[in-house]
Write a structure and sequence with these properties.
alpha/beta, 6-stranded antiparallel sheet, 5-stranded parallel sheet, elongated
């Protein structure tokens, strides 16, 4: 009983002593015995007893009842009255202090013990009840629904905070009023007057509503609400009250309207939208999906995007995309999808993972915009720009070819007249060969610039490319502009497509020429400077040029003294279709193409320019880390590799076919020939040809080289294949051969090129 601490308030000392002795005997702790009300209040505040035994009649200004009132108000301690007076007036007065019991003097020990224990029990129960009520009150006042409690006569007993705010009525104003007086104005969702649903519930407590009403309070505020109710029953089953709940559905309606609008946006979007589960199951496609791909929703829903959707969604199986999505990153880029009818579609795509609270990918959203037409038009514009430059080169190229043809034809005629003088004839043939190689090099430059040549990166010396392109650049600029070369003698090699380097130089030259010849340019000494140097990108460089990466590079410097570029335009010059030239004078694609080439090869390009003082472009190209073996063939005709194997040559150009057949036969090979794929198949079947290698042109009428090779390998399993080709409009066919690392020989080729390639294939 160590917690049962008792304060005795008794003005008769003998009685007080007797009570104290009895309490101690029963195990209670007496914290004090006082005789007056003021002292009782002071000791109670200080000692905080568990219970107070209070005599009603006390000496001083405060009697027991007055003292109990103060203690009850300030300390909420349980009080048991001790009294020998039980008149009606005193009892009625004592009731107002909510006492926990009475002990009538004289009393016995049992009466005292019973009164104290019952008072303590009642007080503890009240504490728990107040705690529960506080929890309930806090809960009700912090929920978003309006909660109203009514008595059976419909008068309000309780409103939570939300109900008070919704009705614009405080709980003090609402208590005791009929609920239909406070919550009176209801309309249906369309805004017309409606019977009060609360009245309906009061009359039919077992029937609920599943409708949305508009409730209007006395301040003119409107709330869309759903109304629910519950009756409060006594243990005997009689109705003790009613609980009404008004649920504000404004946010739900907003969400539904927003969802409806989002559904409309997605359904009407021109972009393809697909949602995929992590395992690949397609769970949603929008209507634009069918328009773009040709596949209906029914044909793709529940299918696996990694199998059925491989062609539809392009490179969804790409390790790059998968890696990004598994990390929770978004992937952006172009993909090639395949239409149901078989043609390709260019999609500018975004693959976005949707993650849960634990960071796990739960869905993937694919957004794709059909840019096939844009890409086709952009390619046409790029070709138009290149052809414009090619047109300017035509005169000079014709001059060079005339010179080369003069050498070739002249030495051929001279050699024919020197059949008895072998050394003179051999010298003439060597000059013919040299002129032919120069003609092939010139053709290669033109094809590389027009992008009709096969693009294949290799180890190159940029200085050599610049020197070889010098004559072409001078024809572009004319005699009034000079080009100065400042090339580093120890320049490192890079991995690049020579045609792309030439394209960069030509585009920059054309831009520089126009800037130098601009009417606002006041520089009389018109010049372009092309320089190269080795360069190390370090941390300091990266701080000034964010986006760069540390490492060894070569730097190409291209400088002119034209009109320069205004500072506000320098951030835009690499954007596609941005141009400062007049309408019809430029496509705005030159610099964007250069930027794309440089970035594709993991390099960087920056510009420095000042209005009226010219422009300087700096291109940083990564150095080749490991030198590759040189592929140049320096063998002479007397050392050509011979062979005895059987070769089927399929070539639609009769001159090329005759050259290849004659060269191979002269070196000991057994050669069969056909003018196209169809005839080659027919000849193989009818004559039962058996051969070791098929040498075929890629682009031929009726049947191309790729299809011929597949058919031949069905007829002659294990037969080896060598593909050849020169200029073609359909360069993608050749790129497919290159990408699959199939044996390939580029035209024009020499006898040594041909035999070297054949021996390499046959011997391995």
């Amino acid at each position: 009983m160590q917690d049962k601490r008792v304060l005795i308030v008794e003005d008769e000392s003998i009685v007080a002593m007797e009570i104290e002795e009895r309490l101690k005997t029963m195990g209670y702790c007496v914290v004090g015995t006082v005789v007056g009300g003021e002292e009782a209040i002071s000791v109670a505040e200080r000692e905080k007893p568990n219970i107070i035994l209070m005599d009603i009649i006390l000496r001083g200004e405060l009697d027991g009842v007055a003292t109990a009132e103060i203690i009850h108000k300030n300390l909420q301690l349980p009080i048991v009255y001790l009294t020998a007076h039980s008149d009606e007036a005193t009892l009625q007065r004592a009731k107002t202090t909510q006492p926990y019991g009475y002990v009538i003097k004289p009393f016995n020990e049992t009466d005292l013990y019973t009164a104290i224990e019952m008072a303590l029990y009642k007080h503890q129960a009240e504490i728990q009840l107040r705690h529960s009520e506080k929890i309930l009150s806090t809960t009700l006042n912090n929920i978003s629904d309006a909660v109203i409690t009514c008595l059976p006569d419909t008068t309000i007993r309780f409103l939570n905070r939300t109900a008070q705010q919704m009705s614009n009525t405080s709980i003090e104003e609402a208590l005791g009023k009929p609920v239909m007086e406070v919550f009176s104005n209801f309309k249906n969702i369309s805004g017309t007057e409606y019977m009060n649903p609360i009245m309906h519930i009061l009359n039919n407590p077992d029937i609920g509503f599943d409708e949305v009403f508009i409730y209007s309070n006395n301040a003119g505020q409107n709330f869309p609400v759903k109304l629910t109710s519950s009756t409060i029953l006594t243990d005997e089953g009689t109705v003790e009250g009613l609980v009404l709940v008004l649920h504000n559905v404004e946010e739900s309606l907003k969400s539904e309207r927003l969802k409806a609008r989002m559904d409309m946006v997605i359904d009407q979007a021109a972009e393809l939208i697909t949602i995929i589960r992590p395992g690949g199951e397609i769970i949603y496609v929008n209507p634009a999906f069918e328009l773009i791909t040709g596949y209906s929703q029914d044909e793709v829903i529940s299918k696996n995007a990694f199998t059925f959707g491989r062609d539809i969604l392009g490179i969804i199986n790409s390790p790059e995309i998968k890696d990004a999505l598994m990390k929770g990153d978004t992937w952006k880029g172009d993909v090639i999808a395949r239409h149901k009818k078989g043609h390709n579609i260019s999609l500018e795509s975004i693959f976005s993972p949707l993650v849960d609270s634990r960071g796990r990918v739960v869905n993937v959203v694919v957004l794709g915009r059909d840019v096939s037409t844009e890409r086709r038009l952009a390619e046409q514009l790029r070709q138009a720009q290149k052809l414009e430059a090619v047109g300017q080169l035509a005169g000079g190229i014709a001059h060079d070819f005339n010179n080369l043809l003069t050498v070739i034809n002249g030495y051929a005629e001279f050699a024919l007249g020197q059949t008895e003088n072998l050394s003179v004839m051999m010298n003439a043939l060597r000059e013919i060969q040299k002129a032919g190689k120069r003609a092939a090099s010139l053709t290669s430059q033109l094809l590389g610039f027009s992008r009709k040549q096969i693009m294949k990166p290799r180890e190159i010396d940029v200085n050599q490319i610049i020197r070889e392109t010098d004559k072409m650049l001078n024809r572009l600029i004319g005699e009034d502009i000079s080009i100065t070369m400042e090339l580093a003698p120890d320049l490192k090699s890079i991995l690049a497509d020579p045609g792309q380097i030439q394209q960069i130089l030509i585009n920059l030259t054309v831009n520089a020429r126009d800037a130098i010849r601009h009417e606002d340019n006041r520089n009389n000494n018109k010049m372009i400077v092309i320089g190269t140097s080795n360069f190390e990108i370090d941390e300091d460089f990266i701080k000034n040029f964010p986006g760069s990466k540390k490492g060894r590079y070569i730097r190409i410097r291209f400088q002119d003294n034209g009109i320069g570029i205004e500072p506000k335009l320098q951030d835009k010059i690499f954007e596609p279709f941005f141009t400062t030239k007049e309408v019809g004078e430029g496509t705005g694609l030159g610099l964007s193409m250069i930027y794309g080439i440089v970035k594709q090869n993991h390099g960087n390009i920056y510009v420095e320019s000042e209005k009226g003082k010219g422009t300087c472009f700096y291109i940083y190209w990564p150095v080749l880390k490991q030198t590759r073996k040189c592929d140049n063939d320096t063998r002479v005709i007397g050392k050509l590799a011979r062979g005895h194997e059987r070769v089927l040559v399929v070539e639609d150009d009769i001159s090329v076919r005759e050259f290849a057949v004659e060269a191979l036969r002269s070196l000991g090979y057994v050669v069969f020939e056909a003018s196209d794929g169809v005839r080659a198949i027919d000849k193989t079947v009818k004559e039962n040809l058996d051969f070791d290698i098929l040498m075929t042109d890629i682009v031929m009428p009726d049947m191309g080289g790729r299809e011929l090779a597949e058919r031949m390998q069905e007829l002659r399993p294990g037969v080896k294949v060598l593909f050849t080709s020169g200029y073609t409009d359909d360069s993608k066919l050749i790129e497919g051969v290159i990408e699959k690392n199939l044996p390939f020989l580029q035209k024009p080729y020499s006898v040594s090129d041909l035999t070297s390639k054949l021996r390499n294939i046959l011997d391995n």
